[in-house]
Write a structure and sequence with these properties.
By secondary structure, the chain is of the alpha+beta class. It contains two helices and five strands, in the order ββββαβα. It has one domain. The strands form two sheets. The protein has a three-stranded antiparallel sheet with strand order 4-1-5, with helices on one face. Strands 2-3 form a two-stranded antiparallel ribbon. 18% of the residues are buried.
Length: 74
């Protein structure tokens, strides 16, 4: 499966953390993809302070993913 890692490098707008796509990865499921993203992005300065790293299946198929993208990516 294909996933995209999103990181909060755009700060906060109107109380909502704004994200950008960091990179695309292949993984067997979302739990493994999220674990990988947490390890790979752990040293990035904006992690934690501005919001967690987020992994979404790509292209997004779940309504939850589509709603998250609309709110946090714009």
């Amino acid at each position: 499966m294909t996933f995209r890692i999103f990181t909060n490098d755009r700060g906060e707008q109107r109380g909502v953390f704004m994200y950008s796509c960091y990179r695309e990865i292949q993984s067997s499921d979302v739990a493994h993809a999220q674990g990988y993203a947490d390890r790979v992005c752990s040293g990035l300065a904006y992690r934690g302070e501005h919001g967690p790293v987020k992994v979404i299946e790509w292209p997004p198929t779940l309504q939850e993913s589509k709603d998250w993208l609309a709110k946090h990516v714009g």
